[in-house]
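Here is one record:
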Amino acid sequence: MSQTSEARQVSRFTEQLTPENAALLLVDHQVGLFAAVRDYSVGELKHNVVGLTRAAKVLGVPIVATTTAADSLWGPMAPELAEVLPSGLEVIDRSTVNAWNDPRVREAVAATGRKKLIVAGISIEVCLALPALSATADGYDVYGVIDASGTFNDTKRTTGILRMQQAGVIVTDYSSVAVEMLADNAHPLAGDVYAALDMDFGVLNGQLRQFYGKRG
C-alpha cells in the first residue's frame, strides 16, 4: 500500500486519541441534575465520570470543567467529582444553556492547544450534545462519553445520541477513551490508569492474579 493510500485512511474518526492531542471537557455534573438521571444509576454514573477524570489526570490530559447556575438552579458539582479535579482548577460557572456559548469555556479549551475534545455532561441531549455539536462546527474532533453522562428518560438519551452522530460526534465510553490514550499496557502509567478507571473486571483480574500467585 502506498503512503498516499495510508494517509487517506486516517480521518478524525480513525486518528488515535493520545495524551498529547486530547483535552477533557466536563459539563454540569451537578447535584441537582444527578438527582433526575434515570437512564443510568447515579452511583454508576458518578463512578464512571470520576474514573474518566482520574485517568485523564494520570495521563496528563488537560481538563476544563463547568457548571450552570450552581448557586441557584442545579446546585454544586457532585463532591465525588470535585474532589478528583486537578488542584487549583477553576470550575467555570455560567448561565448559557450551551456551554460552548460561554467565551470562557471556548477560551479554556483553546488554551489547551488540543483539537480532540472528550466531552461528558448531564444531560446527554443538552449539556453533552449542544457543546459537542458546536465544538464540532468549530473544527474540533469531539468524543461524546455516554456512560460518563446521563439524562432523564430513554427518549432524551436516544435523540441526543442520534443528533450527535448525525453531526459527526464520535460516541464512546469512559474506559475506551482512556485505554486508547494509554495505548500500551507496558506503559509505566498503565497500572495507575487501570486503577483510576476501577473497572469491575479489572478488579476481578487483580484478585485472581493474587489468588493464583499465592497458590503457585
Q: What stands out?
A: The first strand starts at residue 22 and ends at 27. Residues 42-59 form the longest helix (18 residues).
